[in-house]
Write a structure and sequence with these properties.
Structural class: mainly alpha
Number of domains: 1
GO molecular function: unfolded protein binding
Distance between the termini: 68 Å
Strand content: under 5%
Order of helices and strands: HEHHHHEH
Radius of gyration: 30 Å
InterPro entries: Chaperone_Skp, Skp_dom_sf
Strand order of the largest sheet: 1-2
Keywords: Coiled coil, Signal
Protein name: Outer membrane protein
Helix content: over 70%
Family: Belongs to the Skp family.
Largest sheet: 2 strands, parallel
Shape: rod-shaped
Length: 177
C-alpha cells in the first residue's frame, strides 16, 4: 500500500514538474473572415473582373457549339425525308461528334481542374500569398496559437468579435478603413 502511494506521489510530482518545465500556458485563439479580407482588397475586384471576362468568352464558345448542334439537328429534321439511310447516319454521326466536342470543351474549361479553375487559382495566388503573409505577421504579433477562418465553412458556431483579427490583417496589408 505504501509502495503504491509513493509511486503515485512520484508520478504526480513528475507530471507537475513536466507541466511547469514545458510552460503550458493558455493558448490564444482568434479568427478572421477571409471573404471580408478579399472583398476589402482592391486587387480582388480586378481579379474578379478579369475572371468574369475570360469566363464570358468561354461561355460564348460553349453556347456557339450548342447552337451549331441545335442547327444541325433542325437541319437534319427538315431534310430527313429526303435523305438516304446512309446520309442520315452520316449526319447523325456528325451531330454526335459535335456533341462530344461540346462536352469535351465544357469539361476542359469548366470541369474539375479545368481551365477556369486554373485561371482562378493563377489570378488569386499572389493575392492569397499577400494575405497569408499578413495573417502570419498578425499571428506572431498577437502570439496566437490558432487562427480560424470564419468564411471557410461551418467550422465556427459562435464567434466573439473581440477575437476577430480581420481588421489587424487589413492594417498589415495597408488597407485600413
Amino acid at each position: 500500500m505504501m509502495k503504491k502511494s509513493l509511486k503515485l506521489l512520484f508520478l504526480l510530482g513528475f507530471i507537475s514538474s513536466l507541466i511547469l518545465s514545458q510552460g503550458l500556458y493558455a493558448q490564444k485563439f482568434g479568427y478572421i473572415d477571409s471573404e471580408f479580407l478579399l472583398n476589402k482588397h482592391p486587387d480582388y475586384k480586378l481579379v474578379q473582373e478579369e475572371l468574369a471576362s475570360v469566363s464570358e468568352q468561354w461561355k460564348k464558345e460553349a453556347q456557339k457549339l450548342e447552337q451549331e448542334i441545335k442547327e444541325m439537328r433542325s437541319s437534319l429534321k427538315a431534310e430527313e425525308v429526303l435523305l438516304t439511310e446512309e446520309m442520315y447516319r452520316e449526319r447523325m454521326n456528325a451531330i454526335q461528334e459535335k456533341e462530344k466536342q461540346a462536352i469535351a470543351f465544357n469539361n476542359r474549361v469548366f470541369g474539375i481542374n479545368g481551365q477556369y479553375y486554373q485561371k482562378q487559382a493563377e489570378l488569386l495566388q499572389p493575392l492569397q500569398s499577400m494575405i497569408f503573409d499578413a495573417i502570419d505577421k498578425v499571428c506572431k504579433r498577437f502570439n496566437l496559437a490558432v487562427l480560424f477562418d470564419k468564411a471557410s465553412g461551418p467550422l465556427m458556431i459562435y464567434t466573439d468579435p473581440r477575437h476577430d483579427y480581420s481588421e489587424f490583417v487589413l492594417q498589415e496589408l495597408g488597407l485600413e478603413n
